[in-house]
Sequence to fold (153 residues):
Amino acid sequence: MDDPFVFLPVEDLTDGEITLRLREKVPGDAAEGRVPAYKFDILRANGERVGACNLRIGHTMRLFFGGNIGYTIEEAYRGHHCAAKACKLLFRLAARHDMKYVYITCSPQNAASSRTCQLAGCTLVCTVPLPEDTDMYRRGDREVMVYRMEVGL
Fold:
């Protein structure tokens, strides 16, 4: 039998320039195919909120297309690599959950998100068509770039 999922302490998610402040812990729902997730606000050193990010713990086909990590940066703060810095902090948390790797995905038309993945140290694995039953497909996306980052031993 699998051990029940345990959320870990996250007070240490900072690099001196940004801090991830926990906003919500979302339990998994096996019946819905959803894994547990952390949701964070991204704060600058002065406490100003610049965006948000999340980390989904586990690996499923849904996450291959949707990614383990998601992020958004407020328009006024874009171009300062806050999303890439947040990803690097989330890599540490993923490793603490014994994950060996994480996926981050983005639309091929989203050059800024692709650059974020590269700046965070990820490797492009492939560009794949999205299944019709995904939220991204329903929003109009037809393919996704899949990046991977090795985070565990």
Remarks:
- The chain has a mean pLDDT of 94.
- The CA atoms of residues 118 and 124 lie 8 Å apart.
- Residues 18-150 form a domain with the Aminopeptidase fold (CATH 3.40.630.30).
